[in-house]
């Protein structure tokens, strides 16, 4: 459950690209400097406020200090890995964000890892965050990228699994410094101001993007890393955040980015909701991959026939609609063959499987449901005889306990940073309060993706997906990336798909293959 995302249709917590900010030297107690013009360390105020409407009530100095996170903690660390030993500085701390009046708004927690002895001018630095909205970055840090890793697959993917971290042979620290960012309301990040308007601004698509971009800029300034090659990486809802953050950095914060890395991203909510027919096109290859994986291991190369069918005859019959009985029967029967679901059920649903319907029907005879984040993971349906769905996600929920314990133990014991209050791996409160904004237009980041690629011809994009991910199906990203103009050439934009789910990096081979792609991108 490294990251998820929420859609208007499924208003649950989606884990998606967790952002644990690893920052060295940035201090939470640093106020904006007088030389900074109009410090935009928090999302801009709504137009009504800018025009003289009711302003947010700042927290009193006493209240602000009461909510303050402890001073940053920097420790020297070493990990012994196969064939090498990495010595580095680890900083756990926070960056305080202010509004345009210089009033404190929120403390954003981060964790930064910087390799000893590297030239800061040439050494890349990567900023990572998860999604949700409401997810901390522990999934990416502890499941994939950081110097220590927690196994989150197989027997280790249960609530009672040991949260003991191990040295991560597949860490990215070999070739880039790492800064993991936890947006406000996740991890240990918290509000300082108490006004409800502040919460509304941060818990919005645009406000969230602005706060993360400013946090990145502030870290670069305070750490003396403005000259370093800079990369941004996001997971799940990080697919919405990522392109928007890079765009904000380019044109509002004065920070250029060399590359964007997206893992299991959602790029456009329009195709996951309502009556969009493309939601069925996007999910069919994943559903088929799950059925084939149950019989023998599969790779994306094994899905060529299904992808061609999804783009072709399947879409054609979908468009004809249920008014065309022959097309509907033909479609339903083909879907039954591909997914292994009973033909009678497929015909009843006209071959149009909602994600939840597929998850229940795939192995209903045995009282099992598939995971949403990884549909190759099966779990017992707690109410197999119910006519309604009462199950959650057997591929995601079991990870919450071990990841939370591991993140707290790492931060407080190994990194010696001890905030008060609870650590929020996944905040349902943040998720429910989120304002996706912009009226009738569902949130999307394809517009910003086009802009950042057009603005900087040297910027590159790498997208990684898992074959068995029903939260953000890989074929949905393929369809959207195929619509980009010619300037988004294969040399600049690459999609890779591996066996695995939303957190495809839980599988050793997939994690290692993606790491190789990331390293190549940064060279």
Automatic annotation (TrEMBL):
Signal peptide: 1-28
UniProt keyword terms in alphabetical order: Carboxypeptidase, Glycoprotein, Hydrolase, Protease, Signal
Protein name, as recorded: Carboxypeptidase C (Cathepsin A)
Keyword Glycoprotein: yes
Taxonomic lineage from the root: Bacteria, Pseudomonadati, Pseudomonadota, Alphaproteobacteria, Hyphomicrobiales
PANTHER family the record matches: RETINOID-INDUCIBLE SERINE CARBOXYPEPTIDASE (PTHR11802:SF3), SERINE PROTEASE FAMILY S10 SERINE CARBOXYPEPTIDASE (PTHR11802)
Biased composition (Low complexity): 29-47
Species: Bradyrhizobium canariense
Disordered, as annotated region: 29-80
One biological process term in Gene Ontology: proteolysis
One term of GO molecular function: serine-type carboxypeptidase activity
InterPro entries recorded: AB_hydrolase_fold (IPR029058), Peptidase_S10 (IPR001563), Ser_caboxypep_ser_AS (IPR018202)
Gene3D superfamilies linked to this entry: alpha/beta hydrolase
Domain of life: Bacteria
């Amino acid at each position: 459950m490294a990251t998820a995302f929420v859609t208007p249709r499924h208003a649950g917590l989606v884990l998606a690209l967790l952002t644990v900010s690893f920052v060295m030297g940035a201090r939470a107690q640093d106020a904006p400097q007088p030389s900074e013009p109009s410090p935009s360390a928090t999302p801009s105020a709504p137009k009504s406020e800018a025009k003289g409407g009711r302003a947010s009530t700042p927290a009193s100095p006493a209240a602000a200090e009461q909510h303050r996170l402890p001073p940053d903690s920097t420790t020297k660390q070493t990990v012994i890995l196969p064939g090498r030993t990495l010595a580095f500085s680890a900083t756990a701390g926070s960056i305080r964000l202010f509004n345009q009046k210089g009033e404190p708004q929120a403390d954003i927690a981060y964790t930064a890892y910087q390799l000893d002895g590297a030239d800061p001018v040439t050494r890349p630095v990567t900023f990572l965050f998860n999604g949700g909205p409401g997810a901390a970055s522990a999934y990416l840090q502890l499941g994939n990228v950081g110097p220590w890793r927690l196994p989150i697959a197989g027997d280790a993917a249960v609530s009672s699994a040991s949260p003991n971290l191990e040295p991560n042979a597949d860490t990215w620290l070999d070739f880039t410094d790492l800064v993991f960012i936890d947006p406000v309301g996740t991890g240990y990040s918290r509000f300082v101001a108490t006004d409800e308007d502040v919460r509304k601004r941060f818990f919005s698509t645009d406000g969230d993007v602005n706060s993360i971009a400013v946090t990145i800029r502030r870290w670069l300034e305070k750490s003396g890393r403005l000259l370093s090659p800079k990369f941004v990486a996001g997971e799940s809802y990080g697919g919405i955040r990522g392109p928007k953050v890079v765009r904000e950095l380019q044109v509002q914060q004065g920070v250029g980015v060399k590359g964007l890395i997206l893992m299991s991203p959602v790029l456009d909510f329009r195709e996951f909701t309502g009556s969009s027919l493309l939601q069925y096109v996007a999910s069919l290859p994943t559903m088929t991959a799950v059925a084939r994986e149950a019989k023998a291991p599969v790779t994306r190369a094994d899905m060529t026939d299904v992808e061609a069918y999804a783009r072709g005859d399947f879409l054609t019959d979908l468009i004809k609609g249920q008014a065309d009985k022959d097309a509907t029967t033909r479609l339903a029967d083909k879907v039954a063959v591909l997914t292994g679901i009973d033909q009678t059920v497929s015909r009843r649903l006209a071959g149009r499987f909602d994600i939840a319907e597929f998850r229940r029907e795939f192995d209903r005879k045995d009282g099992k449901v598939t995971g949403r984040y990884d549909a190759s993971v099966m779990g017992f349906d707690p109410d197999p005889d119910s006519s309604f769905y009462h199950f959650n996600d057997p591929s995601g929920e079991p990870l919450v306990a071990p990841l939370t314990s591991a993140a707290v133990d790492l931060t407080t014991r190994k990194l010696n940073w001890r905030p008060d209050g609870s650590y929020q791996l996944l905040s349902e409160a943040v998720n429910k309060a989120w304002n996706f904004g912009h009226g009738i237009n569902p949130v999307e980041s394809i517009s910003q993706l086009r802009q950042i690629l057009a603005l900087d011809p040297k910027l590159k994009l790498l997208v990684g997906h898992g074959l068995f991910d029903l939260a953000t199906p890989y074929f949905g990203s393929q369809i959207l990336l195929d619509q980009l103009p010619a300037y988004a050439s294969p040399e600049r934009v690459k999609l890779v798909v591996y066996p695995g789910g939303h957190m495809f990096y839980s599988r050793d081979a997939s994690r290692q293959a993606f790491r190789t792609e990331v390293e190549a991108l940064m060279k």
